[in-house]
Amino acid sequence: MSWSKTYSHTIAYSIDILLASWLWNRSDVTISSLCWREMNGGKPNRGWRALAWLLEHIDPGHLAGARQADIDRALTVLKLLDAAVINAAPKP
């Protein structure tokens, strides 16, 4: 089993989202995805550059992987909610 399917990963992800909510009022993405956006979308400040360096030093490719994971998670939620809407629709 990969770490992404474990309880500890779910808790770590939840803490990440909680911190993003508190610090940047963004409850829809992880801090790593926000960092990727800052690094690839303009002039990141020293804090974003330091965080990017640390995350990429520990886990090369982390920022791009986190961004893709957030995209995949959003698509999964859209599919889930769409299925729920379709299943809840009245039958003719």
Summarize the SSE layout with pairings:
Elements: H1 7-24, H2 31-40, H3 46-58, H4 62-88
Helix pairs in contact: 2-3, 2-4
Task: Give a short summary of the structure.
The protein is built from 4 helices and no strands. It is mainly α.
In whole angstroms, the N-to-C terminal distance is 43 Å
Largest sheet: none
Structural class estimated from helices and strands:
mainly alpha
Oligomer designation: single chain
Count of runs of 4 or more consecutive helical residues = 4
Order of helices and strands: HHHH
| Strands, total number | 0
Are there runs of 5+ residues with pLDDT below 50, and where?
none
Rg calculated over all Cα atoms:
16 Å
* Percentage of residues in strands: under 5%
Calculate the mean pLDDT score and round it.
86
What percent of residues adopt helix (DSSP H or I)? over 70%
Q: Tell me, what's the shape? A: globular
